[in-house]
Design goal:
Layout: H1 2-22, H2 33-54, H3 62-72, H4 78-99, H5 107-136, H6 145-152, H7 156-160, H8 170-186, H9 195-212, H10 218-221, H11 228-243, H12 253-268, H13 275-295, H14 298-303, H15 306-313, H16 315-337, H17 343-370, H18 378-390
Length: about 400
């Protein structure tokens, strides 16, 4: 009996060490594991969407293939989920100031934290891909220098009107950057005392934005204006979290139903062609999905599983690197596998062979590069290391 028990303890120790190494550093405030669990959902949908894109569109045959493609090819909807999550996280301390009498948010400290937390991994990613691309012949160093500069300043979308030539997924980070800049202004909606009026204001702004913008203009589509409804959903969830759930999420089974219906509707309604109607319906579904995921029983338990939310805490590294790794691995593997007999079989085979090493590489980047910059005092640590080095 002792040997199996020792083996079981060893497994627990190994798992605990892995989870500890992969856990992100929190920057203060109350940690909500389900939020990181939602990040897991968002990043997985994006990764599997880009995997489909790199497959070169094998022939889709039969009902099963069509059903599977209809799921993975909606993975782009992971991006608005990210936007809603970001709005929730960023707006929370501002909303606490107005709704619960919290301390005012120091803007200098707020922006400094965003820069010191997000910039180093982002800069490293862009510079590494820029150099790698020149080495393998995708471009010359000088020929793409303007794109590099625009991407580093989060202005590629607006200067060039298209995705970054260096890392296309950075387009959404530029949109989030715009939200960070405007967050102190946008969160003034929480200064309105009556909740129904706050919701009327949010709904009216969303409706006005949706009716007036022209999504055919690429620069508008790739901006906060073009993605505003997803951020508004995050603001609405903050409002519910701080006013209705004062003692914590209710953990009601009926909210699981709301959450499941919301997720199904959010993905299914992407088929609607009329943009204003699609935006309104999907925003409502995303709101229900997030509320159900945070306030339900089973969804909250799933998203609050330590393995699930730990992975979600690493999503920034996965988001930055997964596309480059898929671009390098999938076509190479496809050439060696030969023609595909069917879509589902080829997708699952490639995913089985490619996704685990991609996840391992992104995890390594998180642990060794991103995670150290999560510590608030990392500039002081580096300064101390440099002083000791010079002695």
């Amino acid at each position: 009996m002792d040997a199996p028990n020792r083996a079981e303890d060893g497994k627990r120790t190994w798992a605990e060490r892995l989870l500890t190494a992969c856990s992100r550093e929190t920057s203060g405030g109350k940690f909500i594991p389900q939020i990181d669990g939602l990040r897991t959902l968002a990043v997985l949908t994006v990764v599997f969407f880009h995997l489909d894109d790199q497959l070169g569109k094998p022939e889709v045959n039969g009902l099963v293939d069509r059903a599977f493609t209809s799921v993975v090819r909606r993975g782009f909807l992971g991006v608005p989920i990210f936007f809603a999550i970001s709005a929730f996280i960023v707006a929370l301390p501002f909303a606490q100031r107005w709704l619960r009498g919290g301390r005012p948010v120091g803007l200098g400290r707020f922006y400094l934290r965003r820069l010191t937390r997000l910039e180093p991994p982002y800069i490293f990613n862009l510079l590494a891909i820029w150099l790698l691309g020149a080495w393998v012949g995708w471009w010359t160093l000088g020929g793409i220098l303007k794109s590099l500069g625009a991407s580093l300043l989060y202005q590629h979308n607006q200067i060039f009107g298209e995705f970054s030539f260096i890392n296309s997924v950075a387009w959404s980070l530029e949109v989030e950057f715009q939200f960070y800049l405007l967050a102190p202004v946008l969160t003034l909606v929480f200064a309105v005392r009556r909740q129904w009026l706050r919701w009327v204001i949010l709904g009216s702004v969303c409706g006005l934005v949706a009716c007036l913008r022209d999504l055919e203009v690429r620069r508008v589509q790739l901006s906060l204006l073009g993605q505003f409804e997803a951020f508004a959903v995050g603001l609405a969830v903050v409002d519910i979290h701080l006013t209705k759930w004062v003692q914590g999420p209710p953990r009601k089974v009926w909210l699981d139903g709301v959450g499941v219906a919301g997720w199904l509707g959010f993905f299914a309604l992407s088929r609607i062609e009329e943009p204003v109607l699609r935006s309104a319906l999907q925003s409502g579904c995303l709101l229900g999905a997030m509320v159900g995921s945070l306030g339900g029983v089973w969804l909250a338990r799933l998203l609050g599983n330590r393995w699930v939310f730990t992975f979600g805490g690493m999503c920034y590294s996965f988001y930055l690197w997964h596309q480059l790794l898929l671009i390098g691995a999938v076509p190479w593997l496809q050439a060696r596998l030969g023609p595909a007999d069917g879509y589902l079989g080829r997708y699952l085979l490639v995913a089985l062979l490619v996704v685990p090493p991609v996840f391992a590489a992104c995890t390594a980047f998180f642990v060794w590069v991103e995670k150290p910059f999560m510590r608030r005092d990392w500039p002081e640590r580096i300064a101390g290391w440099w002083r000791n080095l010079r002695r």
